[in-house]
Sequence to fold (119 residues):
Amino acid sequence: VQLQASGGGLVQPGGSLRLSCAASGTIFSMNTMGWYRQAPGEQRVLVATVTNGGNTNYADSVKGRFTISRDNAKNTVYLQMNNLKPEDTAVYYCNILGVQIGFRPFNSWGQGTQVTVSS
Fold:
């Protein structure tokens, strides 16, 4: 299963961006979908996840500013990011846990998309 992330870019503090991540391949079902980020010199950390039941989980640093959502018909997960701050600058990675046709589990990562928040 391959993931293609898009939507990153340069934005001023207080601005917004919407990330998208589309999955392709022999997908039977998608369970937890999420976004992680990695700033220079730091480890990759969780930003937000959404389960197939619609339950969401957010890092404390993004609560109230970021919203994760999914469109199962399009095999896509989104991250709406509002009121962006310079400390949100990082490479953002999408991740999907699921099951392929043939009942093989998968754990796939996108290629990463750069988000830079700067004036």
Summary: The chain has a mean pLDDT of 96.
